[in-house]
Amino acid sequence: MDNEQDQSSESVIKVLNQYVDYLQNSDQESCHSLQAVNPELRPLMACLDSLEQLAPRREESGQLSDSLGPHDATLLQATPGPQRTAPGKVTQFGNYELLEELGRGGMGIVYKARQKDLNRIVALKTILSHQFASEEEVRRFYQEARAAGRLQHANIISIHEVGQQMGQHYFTMDYIPGGSLANSRLEFINHDAGRDYYQIASLMQQVTKAVDYLHSQEIVHRDLKPSNILIDDQGVAYVTDFGLAKIFASQQLDDVQDAQTQSGMIIGTPGYMSPEQAAGQLDEISARSDIFSLGIILYELLTGISPFKQQSPLESLVAVIEGEPPLPRVQNASIPGPLELICLKCLEKDPAARYQTAQELADDLERFIAGEPVLAQPANLRQQFQRWFRRQPALVSRLSAIVLASGIIQTVYSTQGVDFNYHLKIMTLFALWAILALFFQWGLDHLENKIKVRFCWSAADVSLLTGLLILADAPIGILLIGYPMLIVSAGLFFYVRLVLFTTVLSLLAVTVLVLVRPELAVLWQYPVIYSMVLAILGLITAYQIYRVRVLSRYYELRRPER
Amino acid sequence: MSQTHFQELIQRTRAGDRAAENELLQKCRAYISLVARAQIEGWMRTKVDASDLVQQTLLEAHQGLEQFKGETEAEWLGWLRGILKHNTLDFARKYQGAAKRDVKREFSLDQYGAAASRSAAQNWELKDSMDTPSRILLNREQEILMADAVSELPEDYQEVIMLRNLQRLSFKQVAERMNRSPGAVQMLWLRALNQLQERLEHP
Q: How far apart are CA A226 and CA A297, in angstroms?
């Protein structure tokens, strides 16, 4: 009995001691994961937290010894002193020594580590325990890691071992000195004067071949992004992080219940995933989803700009699903045309329009490198219009509405011959509206404060509509539908204040309209009812945005790295 | 004792209420003492009687009270910590000076000390306002309660916490300093933590 108690205290001490070490290293993420694994120790850990707050701050103790020097030199040399966490400090982790932190992501932290028994340097990735909802998921993780361990390819990081240390799951893999595409300073990419497009193509080809190998092993990577592509000193690219890769075969074996737990779970990185991933259409995800991600990486290598990355994950998702980035050659005219075509073909929203296999993409890249014509074709007229609409939806929808409305009015004028001056005024207003739309679109593309531009655009829309309604022939009753339309379309930008702003403006505009056109107020209760409905509509739209925002925040919390 | 009670104490103190000032300073005594010992002992690597340092700090706080411009307990503790830091530096210099009998150093020190004690308050206060966010978020009330709880622990419990948590020594080093086996020190630490947590929950 006593012995048992001793053993349990021993393990408690071990965990708490580890916790203090993390605290003193300011490693909050590891602290959280220890808390999560040992809920019963949380009160004690809270105690340790506040003790740590009491401890002298590092710069304080540093100042003391800095300004005075060691009070006894021999003593100070014997022990490393209060700054035990100075860089270069080695943490023991089972059979590994953690040498330095290489990076951290949503899954966990990657360390450069030394495997003691084999005396080799590896990369060790810890998995934060809150990633695992259940034992089942832990089992799945091991299963996948083992499956990934069987993979062997010149451009793939091999997985060595998967295990657990102090409640922390981890796996180890090849260590590649250098960096990832996200942070490496490759000369041919960063040389702004002249990027070496053949080098970029050949780099992409290596990555594509590795992805093709994964596909041949029935694995879809699902999280291809620059930080998952490592580059060594020789410029060889390696694909890593199969953390999210699901194995085709095991998914097919999954029963209905499993499909339920998986449904709607978006995996991947917003800004680097395909539209079908972003939309959560899990059964649509295929090897062609990886092709889309490869297209994003190629776009980024060519232009230096991430095509779909927005301020919030929600906006990134919307951009991937609906948006269209500017043509690469608009960003940088020196990009070779064929390479742009290859990139755009990868970025087709419809998987069937992309390259069907990674091999096809690699072949087309090969053709570009060899100077042969590539298979990717320039967009036809319909595709071009589609892309324009995705790129500037606000402008295109307004211009279309203006062209349609003025077309109808022109027809009426031509057939019925109303007063020319009146017709001229209306048409001038429409023309002004179109010009303003072009101007605001320019502002959206070029100004820093986009949200202000949207506010101004909304205000301009409401005023122009009001102007039009003041001019228009009576009865204008039906045309009042314009205001609800403006309010609802303001909701498309997921910004509650913009909706409320448009609603308030619309209410003011309706008031003005009623004052200017007394025939609207013949039955005074109608404008009042109309205004109330307008206000309610605005509130409902705002509330829906609020709801979407809450959901998106939930989603963000589940992806801690962003 | 709530945040508002603390702020009320600060306000009354600034209005010249001696009783409130006394209560305010006494509440922070254990806190100051603990922080002082952690700093000084961390540097000297031996046990030190820090009561003079605490006395001096509280005295200077009393004398320089009109220089304190803050309102919250966080600002108050930051201010105290600033004065303490300057005193700790003084203490350490004097100790070193005494060891070396370096007259010149002591002379310049006095000058520095006189000037510093006047300007210290503002300086440190500024410094503290640039704290890390996590520290700002944390309720500093907790720090005072924690310091009180630590000061009520038995002697050896206090010491092991002082060494492992406040001076950030490893258990191996703690064991050397306390002249016990690492295993014994670890068990002592666990018992100290348990008692500390109990005291905090049922004061």
A: 6
